[in-house]
Every structure is written in C-alpha cells, then in structure tokens.
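As a warm-up, study this chain.
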Amino acid sequence: MIVKKRESATDGVENVIISLYAKGMSNSDIEEQIRELYDFNISTSTISRITDCITDDVIAWKNRPLEATYLIVWMDGIVFKVRENSKVVNKTIYIAVGLRTDGKKEVLGLWLGKNESSAFWMSVLTDIKARGTEEILITATDNLNGFTDTIKTIFPNSVTQICVVHQIKNSCRYVVWKDKKEFTRDMKQIYTAPTKEAAKAALNDFKIKWDSKYSYAIRSWENNLDELTVFFDFPIEIRTIIYTTNLIENLNGKIRKYTKNKLSFPTDEAVMKSVFLAINESTKKWTMPVRNWGVILNQFLAIFENRIKL
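Now compare it with the structure written out below.
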C-alpha cells in the first residue's frame, strides 16, 4: 500500500526521510526508523540519494533575489567540523538574517568558509548586494576586527551596532572568578545607561576602578565604544532588537540542536545541506512580524524616511 509497483519509495516516505534527516538523524537511524514505522527496508544508499536531492534546492535558495531594503541585518558565524583531504578541519557557516519592511525575519543565505574573518564577510555582503539588496539601514554584528569597515565598503550608509552581549563575554574572559560578579555589575552601568553621554561617564568610572587590573577589557570598550553605543541613537523599541545578536544566536542554537548528532561532516555539501534543512525547521514559525511592529515601522520611517522603500 505504501510502495506501489515500479516505485522505490513514495513521495510521502521521501518527505518523512527528509524531515528525519533535518532533525539530525543519521542515515542508519533513518533506515531503522522507517523499518519500524512502515515495516519495509530501505537502504542507507537510497536514503542518501533522497537527501541529496536537497542540493538543488539549496543552490536555488542561495541564489534567489533578495529585498531591496532590509531595516536590520544580523550577522554571525557557526563552526562545524568537516572532512577535507583526509583531515577533519573547522569550517564556518556564515549566516545573515534580515528584518524586512513587512516586519518579518528572513535568513538571507548561508556561506561556507574557513575561520571567521572580515575578509570573508566582504564576499558575503557582496553576494547580498548582487542579489538585489540596495540598502541595509542597521547591521548587528560581533566585534570581529575590521567588520565595521568591511560593511561600510559594501553598504556605506549602513549603521553598525556591535553586539553588547559579545562584548560582555569577551571582557569577562580574563577576569578572575572572585572579581567577576563585581566586575560585571560595574560594567552593566555602561550599557544600561539612559543616554550615550551617561554611558561614556559610566565607562570612565569603570576605567578608574578596574584599569590597573584588567586594562585589556577597558581598552576593548574604549576602542569599540562608538559602535557599542549606536543603539542609544534610537527609540527604546528599536534599541531592544539591535543592541544584541541574540536573535541569530538563538537560531544558531537551534541549528546546533538539529546537527548535534553529527560530530563531523564528510563534505562541504553535507554540512550545507544539513544546516539548510535545520534552518527550514527552525524558521517555520517566522510567519508573523516582530513584536510592536507598528510602532517600530513608524519609528524607522521617521528616522530613515528617504531610504525605505515599502
């Protein structure tokens, strides 16, 4: 009843196989699951051929046209182990998520490269522009060296906000355990200040207290302060969605959940296929605009009225 004559598998079973693969199951696990569910055998090689059909979908998706304007684009990288020339090496999947003018989020693409670098991000941004994007009003990134300059090269009018959460984590990396609670409490005074001027004053107090012990963390705040405090230039509703890259990090967490069973991937195509399917699963609920969308849109129109195409 399930597999008709002259058919190796029904469309329904293929969909089940792709869904199980997307949720992180290996080919052998899928083979066992199909046998238990439908009481017939399907080889791992057949399962592999079925999942390989996704490759064409990935190529079409990666090359689709994009919106002319994105209000915000969050960017981050996630590292996977991939086999290359008989060795297992670390490779980075670069991910960009855009907020469209209808208030909905969209994954703009996936790009595979070596260790995360501003040079590779330039090729990512170039691809986004080549696919039709003319304006990115605000970018939210980690504090990767040279990232802001790279963005300005491709989208010169974009405003860059460095993720405050990344900055906090990096600042605390070398703080000894007994100081960490007090250090983070004092640091919080900077990014929770009511205005940019108050944030600068809080940083000065922070420096006076901690510079002799943790000068590296202080210097990092001073060097990145302009990009770390961009969110102060916007109303509260916009601030809450740009001062951190939590949105894309939450997406990365879901991707990790779906791919955690695969300790390493045999090819670049295999990791791209798995991440693409994980994103499809993770973004199924991205059907509604972001919270307070009516208020946020009106604020964007007031601030960037000549640059937004609805």
